[in-house]
């Protein structure tokens, strides 16, 4: 009996049909549904379980008060008479416009060994906590007087359409030739931080912050222990210059305006020296020769603001 032999194997493998690159329509549909469902579940899980944050969204402020005016009173730098004049200046201006004041003193906050100038940032944070419904917080250094009680911050500076005209766009952040410049496309409605410059750079003696999530983020970042422990020559001012040049999140909400808008100096060039009608006059060098110096240098202007305030 003869049996059929199996066919001889060839050295060439038989041709196989290539695998299709397309899954059957039904299977593809099921995979899409599963994938979308998984993404939706992960999103729900994220929003349900993420930890609360100090920068979490807060309700929109009602504007009560419209502005909080913050000043730090340092008895080691200024005489008692001068500080009382500053205090009355702030209280009377705030009263005219329905604003609130936060007049902090050295020792009110624990700075953990940081220079006293950091008190300003601590006081700004405190103002947002005490007045969560304010629209703006304006820090004004004790070396300044408010001279024009008719001007309101929300109209004189922060009104979006006006701010569009006031802000310096595509402008060096640190003069004269910083390669980092303010945003050229920034709109007034998107500005949360307004500040001026002098010949040395950004001036932290007078600035305005719009209340909101970003303001809290900004002040917490500025007050970071990392910056406070770093030996900046001008402490918080140089820390601020570092922030705006290296962190677009800060720069993208900052507007630089003309110095005389909120920070005129008693002496200086035409773009910085005080003129009648300006909102503020500042005596930037008066503390250099002792606590009594500011009282003496500012005496004429102290009398002037009292006359103007009494007549309006």
From TrEMBL:
An example Gene Ontology biological process: protein N-linked glycosylation
Signal sequence annotation: none
Annotated GO MF terms: alpha-1,6-mannosyltransferase activity
Keyword vocabulary terms for this entry: Glycosyltransferase, Membrane, Transferase, Transmembrane, Transmembrane helix
Pfam family, one: Glyco_transf_34
Region (Disordered), start-end ranges: 1-21
Transmembrane segments: 31-49
One GO cellular component term: mannan polymerase complex
Entry's family note: Belongs to the glycosyltransferase 34 family.
Name listed for the protein in its UniProt record: Galactosyl transferase GMA12/MNN10 family-domain-containing protein
Species for this entry: Chaetomium fimeti
